[in-house]
Amino acid sequence: YLLKMNTDNNTWSCAKINCSGLNGSAVSAHANAEAIRTPAKEGIAWSITTHLTKGDFRFRANNSNAINFGHNASAEIGIPNYNGESIHIAKPGSYTIKLDLRYAGNYAYSVQKNYN
Length: 116
What we know:
By secondary structure, the chain is mainly β.
């Protein structure tokens, strides 16, 4: 779930995250424009191995841009940012991509090129 709270007006909202995916120009056409990842047993850590082309991608939830992560240049590598800039892929190939949302305030991601 993504839980938002506003202490100024005492309101809150939540959105259930059913799936997470990659979206953008780096996601190859044969991946149906979005490589869907389902949660691991831990519930909020995802991993996928897929082919990416030269371009950009971002993480997004529920096949929608309402909840999405990118990476801001000012942030440490591997720390996703809500509505951040797209993540750039310079070389096409097979990649293993992980997104870990288990620890609030300490989210992490990794993008590892696979060499065969």
